[in-house]
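Chain A, query sequence.
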Amino acid sequence: MIGTPLIAGFNKFTDSLPKQGPEMPVLFVGHGSPMNGIETNEFSQYWKKLAGEIPIPKAVLVISAHWLSRGTYITAMESPKTIHDFGGFPQALFDVQYPAKGSPELAKETAGLVHSTVVGLDHDWGLDHGTWSVVRQMYPKANIPVLQLSIDYSKGGQYHYDLAKELASLRRKGVLILGSGNMVHNLRMIALPPSRDFNAAFGHDWALYMNDTFKRLILNGDHTSLIAYDRLGPEARLAIPTPEHYLPLLYTLGLQGKHDSISFFNDKAVAGSLTMTSVKITNA
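Chain A, predicted structure.
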């Protein structure tokens, strides 16, 4: 992973976006199968509906489970490529191109907001399926700039939660910040229901238990427990065998303000060991 580093806290760039009125919402989206990016189903239909319910963003910044790096980077190219980072799916999925523009100016401004670490400006990545499968359904015209922020896999939950807080001012500039992953994500324990329908409601007992636990902690504002997810018992270790799909949730929670309200959508377990449960944070 190659990027152009910035000096942490260096913020002499001209603001690329003016401040506006109300803060933009923040989302955590359970993205599930890449097929949700081209299928019309209950999940993708809600993503479309959601786009019509929130203000049209000036730009979208996504923290996707599928861009892991050593160090933190942000895409800074004019035209990010569409990445097909999966295998074994129909050709129609590989044919998808999502030609949203990037924003080098916003990338520089965002990097300059972060004082806790050096943020690199990346010109090699693009938009992986954790991003385009969701954003393509929300904004099919690809007329809104889209950027990605990487996940430093060498860091723990507190790092990601704290880094998110440094991005809070972007909400007042019309930037939609979206974490894309899954709260419960254990591909080794997938089991389809008798119908063989991947999107049919079906969850192992431990998956349903942890989904309910995560929701309860989110509603209670117990971010400390959610950051220390590895201490939530054996069910949590089954739900999060590796953290990359969970960490985008911590970015979303780190951006929650004291007057924000919480709601859930697409609250469903599929394939036994995945939950599509998603979070919407809005300024009350």
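The chain is about 30% helix and 20% strand. The domain at 3-283 is CATH 3.40.830.10 (Protocatechuate 4,5-dioxygenase; Chain B).
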